[in-house]
Design goal:
287 residues, 39% helix, TIM Barrel, 8-stranded mixed β-sheet, two-stranded parallel sheet
């Protein structure tokens, strides 16, 4: 039996002139965003502010996570000109902090690590003073691939654990919880000054003590920033919503995470990985 969506989760997609300008620019530069591909509920708000989370390496993922709206299948070859077009769009939008993520590319020998590095390097060269956050896949646990991205020196390296270990077989069958936590730990070992970040999606059937357990694992891996948001089912073919977490419970999670030592915590129904990314980077940097 489906769980009825509460009133606090109803949000209209507002479309104004700035929204249309961002959409047209992305189309003209043949760029994808996770905002569009994943049906983010904050898309209207962000596009209207001239903000977007770029999705590189195409819009087709080699994995089939049960919670994700991104298309699964066989991706196209990498586009070597994509980093330049992305930098051009960042310049047009006037962004000072950029979030770049990707589909998972298990078909590539390096999982797309070198493409991430090219994106970071191109942004550094063409968009002076811009801050960069990358939200990366697990690279199948490859330390050499991770090192390529870390040494490209993004301000923030994000990798989402997404859910609690018990739910991985149903929610993220091609991923591994321990591998994801180990990636974050290794990133800090490679560069002690790097700000690391991870995110959880709740409402998938997890328990409070399991969420706290994940928080502790992430802090043991020296993760700096944590985001927690409500799972919204993209379609009837995806994992069902087990619970719509109440706002008070998100406030409790934020309080616990802060007590555990996270330097930045964003927890509420509509929070997503890139939510106010630049603000939380500055907050973590100053702690």
């Amino acid at each position: 039996m489906a769980v009825e969506k509460p009133n606090w989760l109803r949000k209209r997609l507002s479309v104004d002139k700035r929204f249309k300008e961002v959409e047209q620019g992305l189309t003209a530069n043949r760029l994808h965003t996770i905002c569009q591909e994943a049906g983010c509920p904050n898309q209207g708000e962000c596009f209207s502010k001239g903000v977007a989370t770029f999705l590189v390496m195409g819009n087709v993922c080699t994995r089939d996570c049960r919670f994700c709206a991104v298309t699964s299948g066989k991706p196209n070859p990498l586009d070597p000109d994509e980093p330049v077009r992305l930098a051009e769009e960042v310049t047009v939008l006037g962004l000072r902090f950029v979030v770049v993520t990707s589909v998972t590319r298990d078909d590539l020998p390096d999982g797309g690590a070198n493409h991430f590095a090219k994106v970071i390097g191109t942004l550094r060269k063409r968009c002076k003073g811009v801050g960069v956050e990358v939200l990366i896949p697990d690279f199948k646990g490859s330390e050499s691939a991770l090192a390529v991205v870390v040494y490209a020196a993004p301000e923030v390296l994000n990798h989402n654990v997404e859910t609690v270990p018990r739910l991985y077989p149903n929610v993220r069958p091609q991923a591994d919880y321990r591998r994801s936590v180990a990636l974050l730990k290794r990133a800090r070992e490679l560069d002690g000054s790097l700000i690391t970040k991870s995110g959880l999606t709740v409402g998938l059937g997890e328990k409070k003590d399991e969420i706290v357990g994940v928080m502790r694992d992430l802090r043991n891996a020296e993760c700096d920033i944590l985001t927690i948001g409500q799972y919204l089912r993209p379609s009837d073919h995806h994992h069902p919503v087990v619970e719509y977490v109440k706002p008070d419970n998100f406030a409790t999670y934020e309080e616990i995470a802060s007590e555990l030592g996270f330097k930045g915590v964003a927890a509420s129904s509509f929070v997503r990985s890139s939510y106010m990314a630049g603000t939380y980077y500055v907050k973590a940097l100053n702690k």
